[in-house]
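Collaborator request, handled under Task 6.
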Amino acid sequence: GVLTCALTFFILYRVISIPAENAAFQTQTTQVFYSDGKHKIGEFAQQDRESVSIDKIPASMQAAAIAAEDRSFYTNRGIDLKGIIRAARDNTTSGSVQAGGSTITQQYVKILYLTQERSYTRKVKEAILSIKIHNQLSKKQILEGYLNTIYFGNRSYGVQVASQTYFGKPAS
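Structure tokens returned to the collaborator:
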């Protein structure tokens, strides 16, 4: 059984390639200014987002996201088997979906490369792609991408727009 699982994983890892990024989650808000370059006329956006580098996101915000979403972020390899098993156990015993076992990397992969479809096929692709992304990007790059793409409510995508929306200040 273990050998079959390992072989299946190896084949899937080789067969599944990283797809193109979802364009909607890469867009940023376009800001239009008068010819003086100082006074804003308005802004246009499919999703209100302004990406910032990880260096402009306070360590406390980074730590809060990790504490809330994926405490094993710095030690996992894109997936957290213990978290998946715990979520499966909790969901089975409760009779409904109560918990998720997705890591920050898996959430980032789902947003940027996959759809919101709820299926085992998508979850398997998500897990494989998460391991691939983990092998290609640093933890800082993954966290930066995640914090710049996730939805914070009130039509705010990414930490910069969320900070401006809720606090009237830049994320930094």
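The cover message to the collaborator said: "The radius of gyration is 18 Å. The first strand starts at residue 30 and ends at 33. Please let us know whether this matches your experimental observations."
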